[in-house]
Specification:
Order of helices and strands: EHEEEHHHHEEEHEHEHHEEEHHEHEH
Number of domains: 1
Bound molecules: ligand FO1
Mean pLDDT: 97
Largest sheet: 7 strands, parallel
Strand order of the largest sheet: 5-2-1-9-10-13-14
Structural class: alpha/beta
Distance between the termini: 20 Å
CATH topology: Rossmann fold
Helix content: 25-40%
Number of helices: 13
Shape: globular
CATH class: Alpha Beta
CATH superfamily: CofD-like domains
Low-confidence stretches: none
Radius of gyration: 18 Å
Length: about 300
């Protein structure tokens, strides 16, 4: 029986989910992860958002960066650099082990969702983590004349470009991974984690069968705003929203999700937006949404689980 379905991007989502697994039995949680950020480097398939969630729930994430494995070393990357390869994507030695095994499984015929389930099992992750699709969907960022792969925009160029459009290549033909729409249909509650709406959640929503299942679901859809006081907690969400014509605020987040959302949890710093959001027909809970510790994440997860 599925209790909760969580739509998730990377670091913000993972922090929230670390709290959620303390509030809801992990076996009742299905996490639908963004794979629009996936990238192939040195012949290896890398799924950064799935890995961030896996490492966080396995208790091995680098808590300072929010991604990668704690205490990792970079000997392999250093050698790759010496061999003349680009090394802008900072893959640690332990992190690389995951990409080697994922790629091996994919080559042997596993789907990405099967490989992810295996990796979760190996790492002791109890919640069910499913990539949004087993088909290739790739987020491309348009910045004026430039069309950049997501990680090129995000890591290589350090989000310096002004984003004018975002496309999800392959989304039209992509099917949800097995279990995604079934979990949405059965869910008692659906949570949109505090992730970048345009770069992390929109790729999931770009798969029409997922969007349809969410719209048809009887379960309430609740969101947590990743924008606090007009600023993204991490990453470029505020700038991307502004350059794409959305108000970079908790109100802008609520407006972006629109009819999909029944209830949004916003920060105390954004109390001035409460009425404006309610006028959109969306319920609002105002609380401290900052997650500086596991206790903060647990407290926030409880509030999301109690919101009507
Ligand atoms: N983010 C960075 O800002 N710089 C990196 O070099 C980097 C490497 C990296 C390696 C493995 C991994 O799983 C994630 C990594 N990330 C890195 C994070 C990642 O690119 C983004 O946070 C997500 O794609 C956006 O959610």
């Amino acid at each position: 029986m599925v209790g909760v379905v969580a739509l998730a991007g990377g670091v913000g989502a993972a922090k929230f989910l670390r709290g959620l697994v303390e509030v809801v039995p992990p076996g009742k949680i299905v996490i639908v992860g963004n794979v629009g950020d996936d990238v192939e480097l040195y012949g290896l398939h890398i799924s950064p958002d799935l890995d961030i969630i896996m490492y966080t729930l396995a208790g091995i994430v680098d808590e300072v960066k929010g991604w990668g494995v704690a205490g990792d070393t970079f000997n392999c990357l250093e050698m790759l650099g010496r061999l003349g390869f680009e090394t802008w994507f900072k893959l640690g030695d332990r992190d690389l082990a995951i990409h080697v095994i994922r790629t091996k499984m994919l080559r042997e015929g596993y789907t990405l969702s099967q490989a992810t389930a295996q990796l979760c099992k190996m790492l002791g992750v109890k919640a069910k983590l499913i990539p949004m699709s087993d088909d290739d969907v790739r987020t491309k960022v348009q910045a004026g004349e430039l069309l950049l792969d997501f990680q090129e925009y995000f890591v290589k160029r350090g989000t310096m470009d002004k984003v004018t459009n975002v496309v999800f290549e392959g989304a039209e033909k992509a099917k949800p991974a097995p279990g995604v729409t079934e979990a949405i249909d059965e869910a008692e509650r659906i949570i949109i984690c505090p992730s970048n709406p345009i770069l992390s959640i929109a790729p999931i929503l770009s798969i029409s069968a997922i969007r349809k299942a969410l719209m048809a679901s009887k379960a309430p859809v609740l969101g947590v705003s990743p924008i606090v006081g007009g600023k993204a907690l991490k990453g470029p969400a505020d700038r991307v929203m502004a350059s794409m014509g959305f108000e970079p605020s908790a109100y802008g987040v609520a407006k972006f999700y629109g009819k999909l959302l029944k209830h949004i949890i916003i920060d105390e710093a954004d109390i001035a937006h409460k009425k404006r959001i309610e006028n959109l027909g969306i319920k609002v809970t105002v609380t401290n949404t900052l997650m500086k510790s596991i206790e903060d994440a647990v407290r926030l997860a409880k509030i999301v689980m109690e919101a009507e």
